[in-house]
Amino acid sequence: TGLAYGILFTIAISAHVLLADRTMAARHPAIFRTRLRWIGTAALILGLLHAALFHPLNDLQLAIATASLGGGLLMAVFREELPAVNRTRLGWFVAGTVSMTSLLLAVTHATH
Q: Is the dihedral of CA 106, 101, 47, 62 positive or negative?
């Protein structure tokens, strides 16, 4: 919890939202308009503000919410980044994994 984790989480979610945004715009250009993009951006900002202003009720609720969101994100990322054996973008996936792990370790080390 805290502002540093909120900012880090917002960066991770923003990366996912940008990927989802690009995918939705390419696959559904008539349905996915600019207004929906602003709603997604506003949700990210509201989430960061919520993390900065409100403390979670307890650790169990925070763990459940994080696990649910993380599982959904992993499914979406795996489906997008590893679509087929002959079209795998493994380099980008590994780069993202290494960079996010490094950021998590840096924030964890800085707070302890």
A: negative
* pTM score of the predicted model: 0.44
Mapped onto helix, strand or coil, the DSSP state of residue 98 is: helix
Report how far residue 112's alpha carbon sits from residue 56's, in angstroms, rounded to the nearest whole number: 20
Radius of gyration of the chain (CA): 16
Dist CA 31 CA 1 (whole Å):
36
List phi, psi (to 5°) of 61: -65, -40
Q: Is the dihedral of CA 20, 24, 26, 27 positive or negative?
A: positive
Residue pointed to by tokens 């590893």? 82
User: Dihedral through CA 55, CA 104, CA 14, CA 56, nearest 10?
Assistant: -10
Amino acid (one-letter) located at 70: G
Is 74 a residue whose pLDDT tops 90? Answer: no
